[in-house]
Specification:
99 residues; Alpha-Beta Plaits
Length: 99
Amino acid sequence: MIVAFSISPTSGDEHGGVSEAVAEAIRVVRASGLPCETNAMFTNVEGEWDEVMSVVKQAVDVVAASSPRVGLVLKADIRPGYDGQLAAKVAKVEERLAE
């Protein structure tokens, strides 16, 4: 499964930025060892249901440690029997674009 998720604390720095808290969440994801990637809006992580959801919970918990309220947006692509899809899905689209 692939999960795309975004975590945000309710309070930011003096400029409204949340990058410090988001960086802590991404550290958790990267330390998990699961295939992942981060873009401007989401972090994508790939693995089995329980391991992916455990990482998401840990990431939420680390943000919650510095904020009284946390927002979470999550989208999942649940396709049993497939792995390596973080790269494969993009590669298929790139192939189509090259035609």
